[in-house]
Amino acid sequence: MAVYTTLAAHELAALIGEYDVGTIVSAKGIAEGVSNSNWLIETSEARFILTMYEQRMEVAELPFFLHLLDHLAAKGSPVPRTIHDRAGAPCRMVGGKAVALIEFLPGVSVDLPSPAQARAVGEALAGLHRNSADFVGERRNALSLGAWRELFDSCGADGLASIDPLLPTIVQRELAFMEAHWPSHLPRSIIHADLFPDNVLLLGDRVSGLIDFYFACRDITAYDLAVTHSAWCFERDGTFRAEVAAALIAGYGQLSAEETAALPVLARGAAMRFMATRAYDWLNTPADALVTRKDPMDFARRLAFYQQAGMAAFPGIAA
After folding, report:
1. Would you say domain 115-313 falls under CATH 3.90.1200.10?
2. CA–CA separation, 43 vs 203, rounded Å?
């Protein structure tokens, strides 16, 4: 989440007035993240999240995300419902950009999850995959293997080197490996594809909300577990947290033998995906944007761990 576009108080009030949610009391920009503009909206009746869609998404794809939220919420997954306006539309256009109002869910995001919290996240992720099995929407992964090379190429070798002198070499070697070894034959489903700790709300050890579905797509199911593993199982300094990894995997449950064997490569792919988008954002985020840039080298270090650890990165799982 972030704020790239400024809306005046009267613009926000007029927009919220199109929904049957009471009158606006306050609106606060949310600085975390890098993709869309977001505000925490409080009305006379409740709290909501207002999102304006800025980049990495075609407006034509927005119904996929919003209908997916409503489908998963109806199935019992802890996700926010889309608030439809008085005409029944799930989104509106403001200044040429799409906006949507989303249910606010209680809970807090944690920086360093406990094993119990990681287990609950694994269970919630497995539930998401089950509950989306009959969802009829389709969306390809716009940030799959081919897109990683495009993003890195757009950064250029000099741009990558300005982040870290070793980054161009790391990228080229790993891209070649990925293009030769990516396990495209594995089972697919709807995946979240971005389940970082700041996209999970917790009340104690219970998951109260899975949020920010704007990278969701149909792709390799086990890749979603690998993405979550790469996001949840490391200290701030990059130290691997084996007990958290074991709990996450135990919470998720059974994988096939093929999925299990592919996890090390899938995790390396997850690290490359976030290196690519973070490197691009590091070089292209406007200086005046209300947003915190994220260091792509965090995932270069996780990539190095996965390269060395192999199956040892997934403790407790049957090899």
Report:
1. yes
2. 23
Mean pLDDT for the stretch of residues 41-66: 84
Q: Please name the residues in contact with 151: beta carbons below 8 A apart, sequence gap of 6 or more.
A: 276, 277, 279, 280
Residue 119 CA to residue 207 CA, distance in Å, equals 10
Please say if the pLDDT value at position 178 is more than 70: yes
CA 288 to chain centre: 24
Is the pLDDT assigned to residue 282 strictly greater than 70? yes
Structure confidence by residue, pLDDT tens digits, 108-144: 999 999 999 999 999 999 999 999 999 999 999 999 9
Check residue 13 and report its DSSP letter: H
Q: How far apart are the first and last CA of the chain?
A: 37
| pTM value surpassing 0.70 | yes
d(CA 307, CA 303): 6
Is 9-103 a domain of CATH 3.30.450.20? Answer: no
Distance, CA of 51 to chain centre: 15
The conformation of residue 111, written as its DSSP 8-state character, comes to S
Distance of alpha carbon 270 from alpha carbon 245, whole angstroms? 15
Comparing CA positions, the residue from 30, 31, 27 lying closest to residue 7 is 27
pLDDT at 87 > cutoff 90: yes
Question: Which segments of the chain belong to CATH 3.30.200.20?
Answer: 9-103
**Residue 259, Ramachandran bin (φ over 0: left; ψ between -120 and 50: alpha; else beta):** alpha
How many Cα atoms are found within 13 Å in the side-chain-facing hemisphere of 96?
2
